[in-house]
Amino acid sequence: MSESLSMEVNDALIENLCKLACLEFDPAGKQEIKKDLQKMIGFVEKLNELDLRETEPLFYMGEESNVLRDDEPEPAMNREKALKNAPVADDQYFKVPQVVKNPASASGGK
């Protein structure tokens, strides 16, 4: 068996994960996340205790290996049909919220 490495779930780790994910939680929410993460890591560590030397890897959940349809070329969808069910659109484009700010406008146009 390989040696099990245990990960410590502490407040600094939770703060870092929240920062990386751009999420904000109140202290109670952070404690809930900490408990859930400890449970998940405990589960994975428990799996590491199993002797899997004689176990074949599982690639598919069923007997079927590829149930996807054949990739057949089809005519392109026209613009009107593509925009028909868009939540917000004009006559030519999908409209989406701005996610990248223009650095020139943020610094006063300089």
What descriptors fit this protein?
Histone, subunit A, 36% helix, single chain, mainly alpha, 110 residues, flat, 4 helices
Task: Characterise the protein shown here.
The protein has a domain of 37 residues: Histone, subunit A, CATH 1.10.20. The chain has 4 helices and no strands.
* Number of discrete helical segments: 4
The top-level CATH class of the domain at 11-47 is Mainly Alpha
**Overall residue-averaged pLDDT value:** 84
Number of strands: 0
List the helices and strands and how they pair.
Blueprint: H1 11-20, H2 27-47, H3 79-83, H4 103-106
Q: How would you briefly describe this protein structure?
A:
By secondary structure, the chain is mainly alpha-helical. Helices cover 36% and strands 0% of the residues.
